[in-house]
Design brief:
rod-shaped, five-stranded antiparallel sheet, alpha+beta, Immunoglobulin-like, Beta-Lactamase, 3 domains
Length: 512
C-alpha cells in the first residue's frame, strides 16, 4: 500500500487533523480533502470511494470520519486493516469524539499517526507499541526538564554559597585587615595567610607598619579603611560584592538591621583600650525537618590585642561557668598549669611580653554534641497540603536558653520559583525576596520576654519545596559561659584597664 494522507474530518466535510506521508503540494492535499464529502452518497454500505487517481477509505466515528487517502493500486484489505488501527488510536488520546477534544490533542494524534505510517508505508506496530513510543518521547522531555531544573537549582545554590563566603571574607578583612594570626601559627582558629610574616609570642620585634591593622578597623568594620588595602584579596572581595550589588543582589553590611542570608558579625565596641580582648564563637548546626539533631559544632576563639608596650606583660583572669564540659585549649606558648589552676592566661616566660598591635589567639575551643537541649533556638516548620495544589505552612521558633539574647534574627524559608506567599499571621516582620524565591522572617531581638513566635502563610508547591530553612542570628553573650573578669600586670599585680567584646553568631544553621 501507498498511503498518501490520514485525516479526521466531520461528516459535513470540515477537516480537523490531517497528516500527509508523501510529497504533495498544499493545494493538492486540500483539494483531495475537500472533494471527499462530495463523493459521499446516501444509502451505500461501502467504506471506500474512488476517483480517477485516488481511493478514499473511511470509517464513521460518531460525528466524525477517520479517513485514509491511498493510491488506487493499493491493497484495499491492507488499507482497511490500517484504517482500523488508526480508528483505535483516536480514543487513546481523546475521551470524546468532539471537535474541541480532537483539536486539543492534535499533536498527540499526529505523533501516533507517524508511528503507524512512514513515507507512505505501514509500519509493523500494534496499539501497545504506539502508546509506548509516544509516551517515551514525553518521558524523555520530562527527564530533560528535571535535569535542567536540578542544574539551575545547583547553580543558584553554588552562587549563594559563594556570595556568603565572599561576604564573610569581606567582613573579616574589613574588621581586622588580616586574619587573626594566633601566635604566628598559621593553622587552627587563628591561622593567617602564609605570605604574611606573623609575630611569635614573646618576640619583641616590631611588626612592619604596612601590616599593622588600625583600631578604626576594629571599631567600624562596615566602613572602608586603610586596612581594606592590606592585600589584593580584600580588594577582590570588595569588587565582587560591589558587582553583586550593582546586579541587584542584597549584599549588605552586618551592622544593618536589614536581613541577610549569610553569616554576620556585629559591630565591635566603640571604645577600645590599649588592652582589648575579643571572644568569638561561631555555630554550625543542622536539624532534621521531622526533629532530631543531625550535627552541632561550636568553634570559639579568644584573641588579645595590646596597643602599648607597657602593658605587654599581663595576665588575663577568666570566669568559666560552663557545665557542659566544653574543652578549652590554650596556645602552646601560654602557661597551661596557670590556666588549669587559676583560669589565668599568661605566657610561660613571664619576662617576655605579648606581641603588639595585632590580634593573637590565646584560647580556643570546639564543642560537638548530639544533645538536643544544647540548641539555642529551635525552629519547627510544618508545611501541609491544602488540597488546592498548594500548602499551608506554619513555622514557629522558641528560645531554649532564657538567659540568651539573640539579635538580628532572620529565618529564610525557600519558596517554589515564581510563587508569591500569602501571609496570614506573623510575629515580627517579613519580606518576600522574589529574586531568590525566599520568604525572610525578620525578628530584631529574641529574649526571655519574646521567647516564642510563629509565622503562617499559604503558597503553591509541595511540602518539600519549603526546605531547607536557614537561620541567622548574632548575640553579644557567650554560648560557652566564658567571661573575662580582670587583667593584671605581671610586675606588680596591679589591675590593668581593658576592653572586651563577645560575639556569638551562626555560620550555618539549617533545618533540612
Amino acid at each position: 500500500m501507498v498511503l498518501i494522507a490520514a485525516a479526521i474530518c466531520t461528516k459535513a466535510g470540515k477537516t480537523l487533523v490531517s497528516r500527509q506521508f508523501v510529497e504533495m503540494t498544499k493545494a493538492r492535499i486540500e483539494g483531495l480533502l475537500s472533494a471527499f464529502p462530495k463523493l459521499m452518497s446516501a444509502g451505500k454500505q461501502h467504506t471506500f470511494v474512488e476517483t480517477e487517481s485516488v481511493r478514499y477509505v473511511y470509517q464513521p466515528l460518531e460525528k466524525l470520519y477517520m479517513l485514509l487517502i491511498t493510491t488506487k493500486a493499493s491493497n484495499i484489505l491492507e488499507d482497511l486493516e490500517t484504517l482500523r488501527l488508526f480508528s483505535r488510536v483516536i480514543p487513546e488520546y481523546c475521551h470524546s469524539m468532539e471537535e474541541t477534544e480532537i483539536a486539543d490533542n492534535a499533536f498527540n494524534l499526529i505523533f501516533a499517526f507517524d508511528e503507524i505510517v512512514a513515507l507512505g508505508y505501514r509500519e509493523s506496530v500494534n496499539l501497545a507499541q504506539i502508546r509506548t513510543f509516544v509516551e517515551m518521547d514525553s518521558h524523555e522531555e520530562k527527564v530533560y526538564q528535571a535535569v535542567r531544573q536540578t542544574q539551575e537549582r545547583e547553580a543558584k545554590n553554588k552562587m549563594r554559597e559563594k556570595a556568603k563566603e565572599l561576604q564573610r571574607q569581606r567582613m573579616e578583612a574589613s574588621k581586622k585587615g588580616l586574619k587573626s594570626p594566633g601566635f604566628g601559627g598559621g593553622g587552627g582558629f587563628g591561622g593567617g595567610s602564609s605570605h604574611i610574616p606573623l609575630p611569635i609570642v614573646g618576640d619583641t620585634a616590631s611588626v612592619p607598619s604596612d601590616l599593622k591593622p588600625s583600631f578604626t578597623t576594629l571599631q567600624k568594620p562596615s566602613v572602608p579603611t586603610k586596612a581594606m588595602k592590606l592585600g589584593t584579596k580584600a580588594r577582590d572581595v570588595e569588587s565582587f560584592v560591589d558587582q553583586l550589588k550593582s546586579e541587584g543582589e542584597k549584599v549588605i553590611s552586618p551592622s544593618s538591621n536589614k536581613p541577610v542570608t549569610s553569616s554576620k558579625i556585629p559591630t565591635s565596641i566603640e571604645n577600645v583600650h590599649d588592652v582589648h580582648l575579643r571572644q568569638e564563637e561561631r555555630l554550625v548546626l543542622s536539624v532534621g525537618r521531622d526533629g532530631g539533631l543531625q550535627s552541632f559544632e561550636l568553634h570559639g576563639l579568644v584573641t588579645l590585642r595590646i596597643a602599648d608596650e607597657k602593658w605587654g606583660r599581663i595576665r588575663v583572669q577568666l570566669e568559666n561557668k560552663d557545665a557542659r564540659g566544653i574543652q578549652l585549649q590554650t596556645h602552646p606558648n601560654v602557661d597551661k598549669e596557670l590556666f588549669k589552676l587559676k583560669s589565668q592566661i599568661g605566657l610561660k616566660n613571664p619576662a617576655k611580653p605579648f606581641p603588639l598591635h595585632t590580634d593573637v589567639g590565646v584560647l580556643k575551643w570546639r564543642f560537638q554534641t548530639q544533645d538536643e537541649s544544647c540548641i539555642p533556638l529551635s525552629i519547627n516548620c510544618w508545611p501541609s497540603e491544602n488540597g488546592q495544589g498548594g500548602c499551608d505552612v506554619n513555622i514557629e521558633y522558641e528560645l531554649e536558653h532564657d538567659h540568651m539574647e539573640l539579635n538580628d534574627v532572620c529565618i529564610a524559608i525557600p519558596l517554589p520559583s515564581g510563587c508569591a506567599p500569602v501571609v496570614n499571621e506573623c510575629d515580627g516582620e517579613y519580606t518576600h525576596d522574589q529574586r531568590r524565591s525566599v520568604l525572610l522572617w525578620i525578628l530584631p531581638i529574641i529574649d526571655a520576654s519574646n521567647k516564642s513566635g510563629s509565622l503562617e502563610f499559604s503558597c503553591q508547591g509541595h511540602p518539600a519545596d519549603f526546605f531547607p530553612v536557614a537561620v541567622n542570628f548574632v548575640s553579644k553573650g557567650s554560648y560557652a559561659d566564658l567571661k573575662v573578669v580582670e587583667v593584671t600586670s605581671v610586675e606588680d599585680d596591679s589591675a590593668v584597664k581593658f576592653s572586651d567584646e563577645t560575639v556569638f553568631f551562626t555560620e550555618k544553621y539549617e533545618i533540612v
